[in-house]
Each structure stands twice: as structure tokens, then as C-alpha cells.
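I hope you will forgive my troubling you with a question about protein structure. Here, with my thanks, is the record as I have it:
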Amino acid sequence: MREIVFDTETTGLDFADDRVIEIGGVELDNRFPTGRTFHKYINAQGRSVHPEALAVHGISDADLEGKPVFGDIFQEFLEFIDGAKLVAHNANFDMNFINAEFARLNHPPVDPGLVVDTLAIARRKHPMGPNSLDALCRRYGIDNSRRTKHGALLDSELLAEVYIELIGGKQAALGLEISGSANEVSDTSTDTVVAIAQRPSPLPSRLSEAERAAHDVLVEKLGEKALWHNLRA
């Protein structure tokens, strides 16, 4: 299973008006990094970096002078993500910006079914939070000391480690994953599929008729007791 853990930095918060100025991504294959990465700084085509955004990621208008526009890196990015699921933290933010850039180039948006939001996973797993990327790094003992400011590639690398921990760590499922068929298990260590055959007929019951009758009487008595309790409540 191929996944791209990615992050974006932008000129501001309004995806309809602001622009993507940095994309970083790392490739996972069966939840392990392959070493392939994607990283680009992108010219905002006249859109200035908002001061609050600058304080977060430190990328200035001057830093973007001479960098390629999104249309120049578009095809390379498409090839990098082709056939993969996209994993991001607070994925709606990143996907809104990516899809807005796609729309400007008359390209269809990314299928939402291919997007995994690690923030949503973290909120389900740790409902008391906090669930920021920094907080999750601290929770799982991941060294984020280099993260003095947000950066798309560094954040993607950290998020890849966090994501693996969120879904159960490197030993999740002991290397086995359920495949598309309910009766098949794929061994990710060998990329083979093992078919699990169903029994041609169910095993006979080990209960005698007397035991079955006694069980039915017990269930009936428990039901009457529960009904009486509800009436008294």
C-alpha cells in the first residue's frame, strides 16, 4: 500500500485567494518510508505572504522570487502522488489549497476517499488532546527539536512517524493486513496473499438437548426479572 504523507505552507488562510508556496511529501510503502521525497518552493504569482503566515513558516516574498509557479511543478507533483493515498494533518486545510491550485489549472480535485486526516485519527484516539503535531511528537517520543518553524518537508517527515504510531506502530497487525476480500490476508513482509478457506459445513453443536432446554429456561427467567425491574423503576 503506497501513501504520501504531505504538508503545505501558504500565503494565508483563504484557499480561494491565497496560494500554496511550499509542498513537502514523503512516500510510505506498507507504512514504511521508502526514502522518496518531494519538496518544492513555489512562487505565489503576485500574492504577498500574510504577516501572520510569515511568523509561522518564515517564508518571505523575497524567498519566493525566481521560484517556479504551481503550473511548473504541477505535473511532477501529480506523478509523485499518482495511485497513492494522501495523508495530512488537518487534511481539509491542505486539500482545499491543493484542489484550488488544481482548479486554476482545470484539473479535477483529489478524490476525498484517497485522503487520510491524521488530526481526525488523533482526536479519536486521544480525545482529551492536545493533538497538534508538536504535541503528538512529544506523546510518542519523536524528536522535533529541529522544528523551530513550520516547514513542509520537515513536517511531513515528522508526521510520517506520528502517523505510523497513531495506527499502531511499526509492528501493527504483525505485518498482516486485511485485503479487499474478507477472506484474504496479505502478508506485507512478502507481498503475498493467503486465501482463508471457509468451512464447507458448520461444526455440530456440543450442547445436549437437556443443556439447551436448561439454557432456554434460564434466559426466560432472566427476561422476566429484567421486565419486573423496569416496571419497578
In short: Helices lie at 51-57, 70-81, 91-104, 118-125, 133-139, 152-166, 209-232.
